[in-house]
Specification:
heterotrimer, A mainly alpha (307), B alpha+beta (432), C alpha/beta (699), B: MetI-like fold, 5-stranded antiparallel sheet, 16 helices, C: 699 residues, alpha/beta, 8-stranded mixed sheet, binds adenosine-5'-diphosphate, binds iron/sulfur cluster, binds magnesium ion
């Protein structure tokens, strides 16, 4: 039977794109994951739309202050008479789409949350791979270093970093990177400890492959599932943290509206206009919950897939 | 087991050292000019330079780190030539530094080029008289004297070159003559319980920190007492009902609670209880650091907020662990042995299921402290979190360092407790 | 032996079990019927995925959240089990019906004392007082030959060995003297010597308690030893049933016949006998043929077989599910053309040089102590002496087999040769190069001549890359062929492994275990090595697949004149496959020599014990009964003198009860030119040992 198959004309190998789509589409098997993905997509689309269009300029104080939702201002206005919907929409950009660099008006594509998580995943993966695969002293030193970082309560670390470096998009990215890296490194390390016992790693070693080849080509690709799930959760944490910093008044600097800061400002007139607090709160919660659901669904499906 | 404990302690010490270095480096070396913040942006470079010297900021970073960690009185004592001791100032109730000159507590003062000794009397007051013969000569032929000034610095006066210094008083900066040339602001060091003076308030950090820590301990402690039993209970209930509606309900509610930042849930709670139901004070006004003892209602909303966020997280952890354990072969064995369902859950599953989350929960204390900062800021609660926040905003690095070290210590201590609890629960480690 | 008047304990009739999955359900068991009587051991055999375990779970009505009994009846002592409520079932479980399954470590609660786990069976079901329960448990532990029972009850599972854990589990199952004991592969995770002791125990307890036993295994040798009657399962159906003697003497169903033909008999070798794998694989539940389930793999299949589903019917003394059962005579069977032609024995030039020579090779692993001193690095350095003084050589084109129980140092030996571990002492030469150091000290030239095949099919391939990429990697790395010919070379290798070129773009998860193992071999071959080290390459495979892989290995050995080191714990397989064999115990080679010399007297007392433990797939064979006492000692502090002296059953043949064995390292006895035995017993005494197995009946 096998000999017969080899005689047949070979089917064209599935293209990369199709394979990728196949990998992604497993998420639709999970109801929770699908809901999460829709919530996340909603905000991504909002961010993209806001690049070209918002109902009003987000910083224009053109309206009566603290009006409840109406036809003109769908979500009402804030304490300075700005349109809340426009501000909410614009607020997605710094989180998801753009980073304002301190040099002139330079802008880096990719939001603060995204870059922060990319930073912690990169740093964490390199540390975790080295700790897990090399073991011994390397492991001891790296883990000791990470333990010290983990010992900092996250918010306190943010406060310290900001007290030292001042406010700014890049500072927030650095803070997210530093606080996230230990977690990623621990995850990657434990995955590496597991993967390195596999026989295919022995096979690579008996070919005397370099340590970098083994870490990055043989081990890392097999850790990508859990790493993807983890990154998704981390984007959630990052948004959570950015909101918190904004609320504390030390997050992303103006002029772009910041959801956390919107909550902070609106709570001063909470008696007059409670809804102005509710909208940005809902925005943060829904995006974070969406990412969590997405990650949960993905994890469930990946583990089913691997069985 | 011995190995495990020895390792934990060793690594805790290393961790603390690393943390303290990182903190110090970041804050004192990495941050900008603190004198701008204290003296204001309109101060002149000359004023700032003078003030920097008074703060001892001209010393090399490593020296300052060592001073900060273990104090510098021993170093200063060598210069001064007398043992340095502290005595309580009856007016401020704070400790002042004195040189112990043959049993007489003494400080000095340079006035019009003449050195005066200030001697402390038994009732706390001082008498002063001129002294002579104290000056030493260095290689360059200058006459100098190392002594203690009345601002708790060990200082070096140089005769005839009494420099002009800017002194910060309640009324602002004042220029003064006869100033010293070198300062060592005396401190006992963090390890000896003295984190230095708050740059913002000018008072010792240790004094202002204590009531704050106590308040936070009450807040977090009460929240923890609520959270743990509830979270474990709901986590286990959800875990044994894996996939059923009850589990779905608990899981989704707890996800919603964790994914909502503290400031959001705090404000929602204020909206609900304070504004709509009018059941609890919406804005907690803490008139003093002791207010929570006088009106416990003030603390209700902060506790509720903390509970809302943490509860969800721990429920999720416990649930996941419980699901895994209920799926394991030994639970299958217990069921196939014909054990009643609740016996399987309580005797066979729970203990194993709590092992994994306990370390994670203890690690999560970090997160709880973060939550405390936010909650305290929302409610204006006079606790450790608010303290760090205010200090960080001001750039009061002595205060930030002290408070941050404290939080780190708490975090590491709880982690140690978690590890120990784990070894205790897990016979595999206990008997190896 | 079977008492026909005995009452039936379990009657399973037309059982079908289904699992609900996404988008439908699968029928894991379609049609199983059998009866087990009191005092009878009913063996169920078949390849993995045939539904054996599902039958066991169905009897207990423990099918998980998504499984259910779809059709049929399960009667236990006359009561219908499928209708029972949860609480009724609970009262039966652990009391009337008990179960033992594969991995005892997993089956015991890691955080509960063994005594507590045992006692609750009595206190809950029988309402016995705690003190009384304690006494009974201790007695039961004694009954299952557990040393120091009272003490063991205070311990936790991880503090006793795997064999002991399984004794505890079995003892726990028997506490209430159940009418039915279900055992699902209870010895598969154990070593042969431990397995043999546990099997003895089961047989003994069955006689004593008159329990009905349902014994599930994939190992024909084990069934032959424990079962009185056998049911063969294939693809969710019972295909043949009968007494164990009848089934082994005269298998009627082509599948049963196939199973018998693909396991080597103990003592068979590659020059005299041939393994015939069953082609293809067990169809997955969702994709079963319409007619006879076995038709796609059956040599006799005709049109009727394709269309009409055969029923289980009585024929002579057995039940068989085959249209052509009457006509088929398994002695007349000849292999069809597409079965891999087994290679003729390699006629070897006698003067061949050894390709690998090891002298006094040692490998030690440093162990971490647990005292405070050790943590600070002040403690005395201690070692696991995983390989001690190994001396051997391998000639080009030959196979050296290595056998021994787990932990005896087989893998370490291989890892040292290939350079994954540093050797601690001794001298190893490969093609004249010194290879005592690890890979980083070796020349590229040497590295490429040494390759390895691994045990676990699920971990031998990197799940990320396609088959083609993985085979191509060593080719590119060692530049075996120019870059533009890599693909052709890979396809060539795939074809050598009887996998078509269309496997090039497949991912590992799309392959079966046997296919993965073949890709693993292709990858090892890709650098065209002189020596391939195989660490248990077939141990994780089903017997039919195992035969195919063994045949392939023989074929490539002949084609490329490759030298092999072959580790396995199955002594029949090693005997079949190897030219020379080394027997290891606790890091030490105990006996080494030509394969045929090892399996016949004179042999080392340890070899003798191993051979008498092997389950032989022939219920009529007479096997000597030698069982080792106690556990394997720790390799950190191996016994002085002869390492085997703590367990040696032959020591008392020496004067003074073998005192010398405790103090002095034994000499090498050389009964033959190439045959060496590491023992104080003189060759003359060793020669007087009788053969372990005296053959009877069919061969
Ligand atoms: N990496 C290692 N570190 C410490 N001890 C090891 C290591 N690998 C194997 N061992 C020990 O060496 C001995 C031999 O093991 P191994 O070579 O794996 O035997 P086998 O292949 O026969 O199962 C055992 O006692 C085992 O526990
Ligand atoms: S029924 Fe036909 S296909 Fe099935 S086993 Fe018998 S001969 Fe083979
Ligand atoms: S040397 Fe002694 S203990 Fe060792 S195998 Fe021979 S008889 Fe047994
Ligand atoms: Mg092994």
């Amino acid at each position: 039977m096998e000999a017969m198959q080899s005689g047949l004309k070979l089917a064209a190998p599935p293209s990369r794109l199709r394979r990728m789509w196949k990998n992604i589409s497993i998420i639709f098997d999970s109801r929770v994951g699908t809901i999460g993905m829709i919530m996340v997509l909603f905000w991504i689309v909002t961010a993209l739309v806001s690049l070209f269009w918002t109902p009003y300029p987000p910083n224009a104080t053109d309206f009566i202050q603290n009006t409840p939702p109406n036809i003109q201002n769908l979500l009402g206005t804030d304490q300075l008479g700005r349109d809340i919907l426009s501000r909410l929409m614009q607020g997605t950009q710094v989180i998801l789409l753009k980073t304002r660099l301190p040099w002139g008006k330079a802008i880096l594509p990719g939001g603060v949350a995204i870059w922060g998580v990319l930073g912690s995943v990169t740093l964490g993966a390199v540390l975790g791979l080295n700790a897990g695969y090399r073991g011994g002293w390397t492991d001891q030193i790296i883990m000791q270093f990470l333990d010290a970082l983990i010992a900092f309560p996250v918010i306190v670390l943010y406060l310290v970093v900001i007290a030292a470096l001042g406010q700014g998009d890049l500072v927030v990215i650095v803070a997210i990177t530093i606080t996230g890296a230990p977690g990623v490194a621990r995850l990657v390390r434990s995955l590496t400890l597991d993967i390195k016992t596999r026989d295919y790693i022995r096979a690579a070693e008996t070919r005397a492959e370099t340590i970098w080849y083994i870490m990055f080509k043989e081990i890392l690709p097999n850790a990508r599932g859990p790493l993807l799930v983890d990154s998704m959760l981390r984007v959630g944490y990052a948004i959570f943290a950015i909101g918190t910093l904004g609320f504390l008044g030390i997050g992303l600097p103006p002029p772009d509206p910041d959801w956390g800061n919107m909550v902070n400002e609106a709570r001063r007139s909470i008696f007059a206009n409670p809804l102005a607090v509710v909208w940005p709160s809902l925005a943060i919660a829904s995006l974070v919950i969406g990412l969590n659901l997405f990650a949960d669904g993905l994890r469930e499906e990946l583990s089913r897939y691997q069985k | 087991m011995a190995r495990f404990i020895a390792r934990s302690i060793l690594s805790t010490i290393t961790t603390m050292l690393l943390v303290s270095m990182a903190l110090f480096l970041l804050l004192e070396v990495g941050s900008g000019d603190i004198t701008v913040k204290i003296l204001g942006v309109f101060s002149t470079p000359e004023q700032r330079a003078s003030y920097r010297a008074q703060l001892g900021l001209n010393a090399p970073a490593w020296q300052r780190y060592v001073d900060w960690l273990i104090g510098n009185d021993w170093r200063a004592a060598k210069r001064v030539g007398y043992p340095l001791v502290t005595a309580t100032n009856p007016q401020t109730d704070e400790k002042d530094w004195w040189a112990d000159v043959d049993g007489q507590l003494t400080r000095w003062k340079l006035e019009d080029g003449h050195l005066q000794a200030l001697e402390r009397q038994a009732d706390g007051s001082t008498t002063s008289h001129l002294v002579s013969g104290k000056w030493q000569t260095n290689a360059a032929g200058q006459e100098f004297f190392w002594g203690l000034d009345n601002k708790n610095n060990a200082v070096k006066w140089v005769r005839g070159e009494g420099s002009e210094v800017w002194v910060l008083t309640k009324a602002g900066l004042r220029k003064a003559g006869d100033g010293p040339q070198e300062y060592i602001p005396l401190r006992k060091g963090l390890l000896r319980g003295d984190p230095g003076k708050s740059l913002q308030y000018g008072r010792p950090v240790a004094v202002t920190l204590f009531p704050r820590v106590r308040n936070t301990a009450i807040l977090a402690g009460v929240a923890f007492l609520f959270i743990m039993p509830l979270a474990l209970f709901f986590g286990i209930i959800a875990g044994i009902n894996d996939g059923k509606p009850l589990d779905r309900f608990i899981s989704i509610t707890s996800l919603g609670a964790t994914a909502t930042p503290e400031f959001v849930s705090g404000i929602f709670l204020i909206l609900i209880f304070g504004i709509w139901l009018k059941a609890l004070p919406a804005v907690s006004i803490f008139l003093s650091d002791d207010a929570i003892f006088k009106d416990p209602k003030l603390i209700a909303l902060p506790i509720l907020t903390l509970t809302a966020v943490e509860l969800g997280y721990i429920i999720r952890m416990t649930r996941a662990s419980m699901v895994e354990v209920m799926d394991s072969a030994y639970i299958r064995t217990a069921i196939l042995k014909g054990m009643p369902y609740w016996r399987v859950v309580l005797r066979h599953a729970v203990r194993n299921a709590l092992m994994a989350p306990i370390t994670v929960i203890m690690l999560h204390v970090n997160w709880l402290i973060g939550g405390v900062v936010v909650v305290e800021v929302i409610f204006g609660f006079p606790g450790l979190g608010k303290y760090i926040y205010d200090a960080a905003i001001f750039g009061d690095f002595n205060a930030v360092e002290a408070a941050a070290m404290l939080t780190v210590t708490i975090a590491i201590a709880t982690r140690l407790v978690g590890d120990l609890a784990y070894t205790f629960l897990n016979p595999r480690i206990r008997y190896s | 032996m079977v008492d026909n008047k005995a009452s039936p304990v379990l009657q399973v009739k037309d059982l079908a079990v289904a699992y609900k999955i996404r988008g439908g359900e699968i029928e894991a068991v379609q049609d199983a019927s059998f009866v087990i009587k009191r005092g009878e051991a009913y063996g169920i055999v078949g390849e993995s995925g045939c539904g054996k375990s599902t039958v066991a779970w169905a009897v207990l009505n423990f099918l998980g959240a998504n499984g259910y009994v779809k059709r049929g009846q399960i009667k236990f002592l006359g009561q219908e089990l499928t209708q029972k409520s949860k609480s009724e079932l609970r009262l039966l479980r652990g009391d009337q019906i008990a179960m033992v399954y594969q991995d005892p470590m997993q089956a015991l609660n890691p955080s509960m004392r063994l005594g507590d786990q045992m006692k609750e069976v009595l206190t809950i079901h029988r309402g016995i007082s705690d003190a009384e329960a304690e006494k009974r448990c201790a007695k039961m532990l004694e009954r299952v030959y557990m040393p120091d029972p009272v003490n063991v009850m205070k311990r936790y599972p991880h503090q006793i060995s795997g064999g002991q854990q399984q004794r505890v589990v079995i003892g726990m199952a028997l506490l209430n003297n159940p009418a039915l004991l279900i055992m699902d592969e209870p010895t598969t995770a154990l070593d042969v010597t431990v397995e043999a002791a546990v099997l003895d125990l089961i047989a003994e307890l069955r006689h004593e308690y008159d329990t009905a036993i349902m014994y599930i295994t994939h190992n024909l040798g084990v069934v032959a030893r424990v079962a009185t009657r056998v049911g063969v399962m294939y693809a969710g159906e019972m295909v043949e049933q009968g007494t164990v003697e009848e089934i082994f003497k005269n298998p009627r169903h082509p599948y049963t016949q196939g199973l018998m033909r693909c396991v080597p008999k103990l003592g068979a070798n590659k020059s005299e006998s041939i393994l015939y794998p069953i082609p293809g694989r067990v169809p997955p539940p969702g994709n079963r043929p319409a007619g006879c389930m076995f038709a796609p793999r059956c040599d006799y299949a005709d049109n009727r077989c394709q269309e009409e589903h055969p029923a289980l019917r009585a024929l002579d003394n057995v039940n068989v599910r085959c249209h052509l059962a009457e006509e088929i005579d398994w002695r007349q069977w000849t292999p069809t053309e597409d079965v891999i032609a087994p290679p003729a024995v390699i006629a070897q030039a006698a003067a061949d040089q050894p390709i690998l020579e090891a002298k006094s090779l040692k490998t030690y692993y440093p162990v971490k102590g647990s005292s405070l001193k050790d943590v600070l690095g002040l403690g005395e350095k201690r070692f696991v002496k995983a390989v001690e003084d190994a001396t051997f050589q391998i000639k080009r084109g030959k196979t050296l087999g290595v056998v021994g129980e787990s932990g005896c140092g087989k893998s370490t030996l291989v890892k040292t040769i290939i350079g994954l571990e540093d050797s601690t002492g001794g001298d190893v030469k490969f093609l004249g190069f010194d290879i005592t150091g690890n890979l980083s000290t070796r020349d590229e030239q040497v590295i490429k001549e040494l390759q390895m095949v691994f045990q676990n099919p699920d971990s031998t391939m990197n799940p990320t890359y396609t088959v083609g990429q993985q085979i191509a990697r060593p080719i590119r790395r060692f530049k075996t062929v120019p870059n533009d010919q890599v693909r052709a070379e890979v396809v060539n290798l795939l074809e050598t492994m009887r996998l078509g070129a269309n496997y090039f773009d497949r991912l590992p998860r799309q392959l079966s275990g046997g296919e993965k193992q073949r890709v693993g071999i292709a990858r090892a071959l890709a650098s065209r090595p002189d020596l391939i080290l195989c660490d248990e390459p077939v141990s994780a495979l089903d017997v039919s697949v195992q035969a195919a892989v063994l045949n392939l290995l023989l074929e490539i050995q002949q084609k490329y004149d490759t030298t092999l080191v072959f580790i396995a714990h199955d002594l029949s397989v090693v005997r079949f496959f190897s030219d020379e064999i080394a027997v290891m115990y606790l890091g030490q080679i105990m006996e080494i020599g030509p394969a045929e010399a090892i399996y016949a007297p004179p042999y080392h007392p340890y070899t003798e014990a191993l051979l008498s433990a092997v389950p032989v797939p022939d219920p009529t064979a007479k096997q000597k009964h030698i069982r080792l006492q106690g556990n394997v000692p720790s390799a950190i502090n191996p016994p002085a003198g002869c390492r085997f002296h703590t367990r040696c059953p032959r020591r008392n043949l020496l004067p003074n009860g073998g005192k010398i064995c405790q103090t002095e390292i034994p000499p090498w006895r050389e009964p033959d030119d190439e045959h060496k035995i590491f023992c104080h017993l003189p060759t003359d005494t060793l020669t007087t040992f009788e053969p372990v197995i005296s053959k009877e009946g069919n061969g």
